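Design request, C-alpha cells follow.
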C-alpha cells in the first residue's frame, strides 16, 4: 500500500511538458478544476511530449491523479517607439496536479488542485509605459506556489464549494477565450480589475467560493478573498497564507446557451468550442477598505461592475469547432476613485483556419482604456 502511494507521489512530482496537439482519446476526460493555469493540452498517447510512459499516465488518471509540466512563452518585438527597448521575452514553467479523491480514495465529489511556477523575462509593457499590457503573462520574476484548493461537489455539480488559496482574477472577469489571445485584457482578465485590489495570478491569497447551478443553463457564484496590496513582497514563496487586508467579495451570474452550466470552466478548450455555444456574464467586486478619491479624500468602499459576452458566430460544421467566435466585454467603476475607471474589449477568433494536424487559431483584438478626467490636474489638457 505504501509503495503504491509513494509511486504515485513520485510520478506526480515528475510531470512532463505538454505541447498543444489535438488528438482524440477513447474516453472523454473531465476538465476538472483548473483555472487559467489550464492550457489547450492534447489528449491520448500523443497528448504529452513524452507520451504515456507505457500506460503509466493513463493508469494514474484512472486512479484520480492528473498532472503536467509545461512551458509557455511570449516573444514580443516593438516595431517603433521612443523607447530603446525593442524585444522582450517572458518565460513560464508551470507544474500542476489535480486529484479526484472519488477515484483515489472513494471520497466522491472531493477534489484537490495545486499549481506552482517559475517565471521571468522582459516586460514590454513596462518598457513602453502602456495601460494595455502586450503580454497576458508578464508580471514579476518569481518562483512560487501559485494556488491550491480543496473542492467539494454535491448533486451532480449543482452545488460546489472551494476553499484554499486562489485568485479572484483567475475566475471573475477572466476572458473565456483568453487562450487564443496574447495581450492582457483579452489574454487573461480585464486589465483594470486591480482598481479594488482583486487578487491575480500568480500571487494568490486565501479565498472561499460557493457556486450554485439552479438551472442547467444558469449559474451563480460568489467568493471572498483576503486583500493584499503588496502580495509579492508579503508572500514571496506562496507557501504561507497571508491575511493583510480586508475581505474582498466578488460575485458573478452566467448564462450558458448551447451547453450545461456545470461544464463551463474558466477558459474554453477545443472540445468545448464545438457547436454554437455561448457564455454571457455579469459580475461585481466590492472592497470595503480605504480608498483615496481624486480630490484626496480618504473614504471606505470601492467597487467594479463588468459585463462579458462570448458567442460562437459561425461553424463550417454545426457540430464542429472550426469557425468564427466573437467576444465583447465592458467594465465600469466610480470615476472619482479609479483613474482607469472603464475598459472595453472586443475580439474575433477563427478556429482552425489552417489545414494542419496541430490545433491553430487566428485572433484579432481591440482594447479601449478610458481615464477619469477627475484625476487630471487643474490647467492640464484632458
Amino acid at each position: 500500500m505504501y509503495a503504491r502511494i509513494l509511486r504515485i507521489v513520485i510520478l506526480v512530482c515528475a510531470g512532463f511538458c505538454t505541447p498543444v496537439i489535438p488528438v482524440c482519446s477513447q474516453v472523454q476526460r473531465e476538465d476538472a478544476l483548473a483555472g487559467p493555469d489550464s492550457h489547450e493540452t492534447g489528449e491520448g498517447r500523443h497528448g504529452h511530449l513524452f507520451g504515456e510512459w507505457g500506460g503509466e499516465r493513463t493508469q494514474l488518471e484512472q486512479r484520480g491523479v492528473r498532472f503536467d509540466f509545461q512551458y509557455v512563452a511570449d516573444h514580443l518585438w516593438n516595431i517603433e517607439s521612443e523607447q530603446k527597448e525593442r524585444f522582450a521575452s517572458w518565460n513560464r514553467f508551470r507544474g500542476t496536479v489535480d486529484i479526484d479523491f472519488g477515484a483515489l480514495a472513494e471520497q466522491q465529489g472531493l477534489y484537490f488542485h495545486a499549481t506552482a511556477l517559475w517565471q521571468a523575462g522582459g516586460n514590454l509593457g513596462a518598457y513602453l509605459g502602456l495601460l494595455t499590457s502586450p503580454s497576458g503573462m508578464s508580471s514579476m520574476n518569481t518562483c512560487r506556489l501559485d494556488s491550491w484548493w480543496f473542492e467539494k461537489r454535491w448533486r451532480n455539480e449543482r452545488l460546489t464549494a472551494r476553499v484554499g488559496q486562489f485568485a479572484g482574477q483567475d475566475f471573475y472577469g477572466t476572458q473565456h477565450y483568453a487562450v487564443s489571445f496574447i495581450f492582457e485584457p483579452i489574454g487573461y482578465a480585464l486589465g483594470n480589475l486591480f482598481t479594488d485590489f482583486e487578487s491575480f495570478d500568480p500571487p494568490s491569497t486565501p479565498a472561499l467560493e460557493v457556486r450554485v447551478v439552479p438551472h442547467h443553463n444558469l449559474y451563480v457564484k460568489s467568493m471572498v478573498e483576503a486583500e493584499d496590496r503588496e502580495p509579492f513582497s508579503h508572500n514571496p514563496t506562496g507557501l504561507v497564507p497571508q491575511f493583510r487586508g480586508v475581505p474582498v467579495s466578488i460575485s458573478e451570474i452566467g448564462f450558458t446557451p448551447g451547453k450545461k452550466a456545470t461544464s463551463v470552466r474558466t477558459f474554453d478548450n477545443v472540445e468545448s468550442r464545438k457547436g454554437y455555444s455561448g457564455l454571457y456574464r455579469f459580475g461585481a467586486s466590492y472592497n470595503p477598505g480605504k480608498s483615496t478619491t481624486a480630490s484626496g479624500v480618504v473614504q471606505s468602499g470601492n467597487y467594479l461592475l463588468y459585463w462579458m459576452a462570448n458567442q460562437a458566430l459561425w461553424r463550417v460544421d454545426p457540430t464542429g469547432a472550426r469557425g468564427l467566435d466573437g467576444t465583447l466585454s465592458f467594465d465600469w467603476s466610480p470615476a472619482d476613485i479609479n483613474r482607469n475607471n472603464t475598459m472595453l474589449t472586443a475580439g474575433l477568433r477563427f478556429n482552425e483556419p489552417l489545414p494542419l494536424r496541430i490545433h491553430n487559431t487566428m485572433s484579432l483584438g481591440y482594447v479601449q482604456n478610458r481615464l477619469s478626467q477627475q484625476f487630471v490636474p487643474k490647467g492640464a489638457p484632458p
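Comment from the thread starter after seeing the answer: thanks! The CA atoms of residues 163 and 208 lie 5 Å apart.
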